[in-house]
């Protein structure tokens, strides 16, 4: 009765329960979430660069 259910984790990508090491249930999920993370990082970088350019433009306009 007191037998524990095998320890399991939930995949960080698809949320499925799985038994084993790591954060993802499969290589596919690992790769998928990695590339999604990279895409997000790139988006943030672009946003940052654009806002810096706008800031510099506004500074130049206020000086002129
Ligand atoms: Zn998964």
Q: Key features?
A:
single chain, two-stranded antiparallel sheet, binds zinc ion, mainly alpha, 64 residues
Count the DSSP helices. 1
What do the pLDDT scores average to?
A: 89
Strand proportion, as a percent range, falls in 5-15%
Uncertain residue segments: none
Helix-strand makeup class: mainly alpha
What does the main sheet amount to?
Answer: 2 strands, antiparallel
Q: What is the molecular shape?
A: rod-shaped
Give me the count of strands: 2
Strand order of the largest sheet: 1-2
Q: Please give the alpha-carbon distance between the first and last residues.
A: 80 Å
Question: Which hetero ligands occur in this complex?
Answer: zinc ion
Helix content: 55-70%
Please compute the radius of gyration using only Cα atoms: 22 Å
Q: Tell me the number of structural domains.
A: 1
Order of helices and strands: EEH
Please explain how this structure is put together.
By secondary structure, this protein is mainly alpha-helical. The protein contains 1 helix and 2 strands, in the order E-E-H. Strands 1-2 form a two-stranded antiparallel sheet. The chain is rod-shaped, with a radius of gyration of 22 Å. The protein starts with 8 loop residues before the first strand and ends with a helix. The model has no long low-confidence stretch (mean pLDDT 89). The protein binds zinc ion. Zinc ion (ZN) binds next to loops.
Topology:
Blueprint: E1 9-10, E2 17-18, H1 27-63
Antiparallel strand pairs: 1-2
């Amino acid at each position: 009765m007191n037998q524990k259910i095998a320890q399991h984790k939930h995949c960080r990508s698809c949320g499925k329960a799985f038994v084993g090491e790591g954060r993802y249930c499969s290589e596919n999920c690992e790769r998928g979430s990695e590339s999604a993370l990279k895409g997000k990082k790139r988006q943030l970088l672009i946003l940052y660069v654009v806002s810096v350019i706008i800031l510099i433009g506004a500074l130049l306009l206020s000086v002129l």
